[in-house]
Amino acid sequence: MVFQEWNRVAENDHLWRNLCLKKWSFCNFSKCLGSQTWKQFFLKQTKQEYQMALAQPEDFIFKEATGNLGIIGPMAYLSGNGPTMGGREKSIICTVSSKHMLYAWDVQEGTMIWSSPVQQSSITHLATLPQLHLAFTVDLEGTVKVWNCQDQDALATFPVSQACFSLEVCLTKDGPFLMVGNSEGDIYTLTVPELRGVSKVHAFKYTVDLLHCSPDKKWVFASGTHQNILPRVFFTECLLKPSEGKSPLSLSIPFSSCCRACWAPRRTSRITLMYRRGSSKKTGFTTFDLMTERTGGRTVIQVGTSCNDLRTTRGPSAVCGRILCMSLPHLWMTPCMCTCGKRKAVIHTSRAAVTWNT
Question: What is the pLDDT of residues 214-230, one digit of tens each?
Fold first, then answer.
């Protein structure tokens, strides 16, 4: 009787769905699930990950690109960056070239499938929206363009008066939007693919170097790497639906010298900042939780620090670990401590990982 009950529970589709959503929260399951059940997907994907973990360098193949392609710069997936059943979807990446061109590549075949015409100015930044198969670029002159990587010409262009230093694509329930940060501290919000201006916000006195939309699209984090800039978090809806004569709802985070930021994938209102301070540029991490509260008929953003506030130290401490920073060309380590006193913590950013000795 017990075995029968366990077998019944093990075949519950809701159980396997929850396991998949918890393990692969970044996946677009509408594409990768196909006709398979949640259980079949979980078992097959887990087996595939196990096989990949056992793979050796000689198990991989590569194909070297030929021709005068220039120096390849930023790259991003245009499609196919998630797991699919049977591998039916092609993986396509976009790359920027020093030849003032944008390329699209078939990853499996290792071949170029599209290239843009030569642009008047060097392309400095690239962002993609795989769900709509669109790529976005900005050049040295501040011209923003959107491409479908099929037609020869861009679908739309938008001139920004100053040089741009950050791009972020946000796919919301109201549709896709593109956010652009420039050297004057302005943040432009544009429709996609028309690149029609929705709002313009003056966020800082200095360059907007970082723009990150939270996983649930509720928040937009903006910051610059200048030491006098305090990062700001905007309520996304206020940027997408601006009210005339009113400033968008936002909050300055009381933390300077931010050089990287990353939203927690499973805690959608939690963001971790990486900072460098002092003449020795010591590196540290701190984490903030955001929330909104209705006070006196208006919405207020509140911020609180969580327990993952990490700082580098010159020597070992009672609670210490090591920061492994992928700072090319060397891999270096430095002792660190958690200001809240907890022994276990793991933080990942685009170029660093923090692990704790236990």
Answer: 988 999 999 988 877 88
Q: Which two tokens stand for residue 303?
A: 């911020």
Distance between CA atoms of residues 219 and 248, nearest Å: 12
- pTM metric for this prediction: 0.73
| The pLDDT of residue 88 | 58
Provide the pLDDT for residue 168.
95
- Where residue 276 falls among pLDDT bands split at 50, 70, 90? confident
pLDDT of 26 reads 63
> Any alpha helices (H) in the chain, and if so which ranges?
2-10, 13-23, 29-32, 38-53, 236-240
Nearest Cα to Cα of residue 88 among 35, 37, 18, 153: 35
Q: Could you give the C-alpha distances from 245 to 248, 252, 271, 333, in angstroms and in order? A: 10, 20, 30, 50
**What is the token pair recorded at 335?**
């002792």
* Angle of CA points 203, 206, 211, to nearest 5°: 55
The pair of structure tokens assigned to 170 is 């946000």
CB atoms within 10 A of CB 99: 17
The residue assigned the tokens 């230093």 is: 165
Single out the residue of 126, 215, 117, 116 nearest to residue 168, CA to CA: 126
Please, which residues have CB within 8 angstroms of residue 307's CB and are 6 or more apart in sequence?
Answer: 287, 338, 340, 342, 345
DSSP assignments along 215-259, one per residue: TTSSEEEEE-SSTTPPPEEEEHHHHHSPPTT-PPPEEE-S---EE
- The DSSP line for 144-166 is EEEE-SSSSS-SEEEE-SS-EEE
Amino acid type, 49:
E
Q: Is the dihedral of CA 106, 111, 114, 118 positive or negative?
A: positive
Task: Say what the pLDDT of residue 275 is.
Answer: 86
DSSP state of 110: T
DSSP state of 108: T
Q: Mind listing the pLDDT tens digit for each residue in 140-151?
A: 999 999 999 999
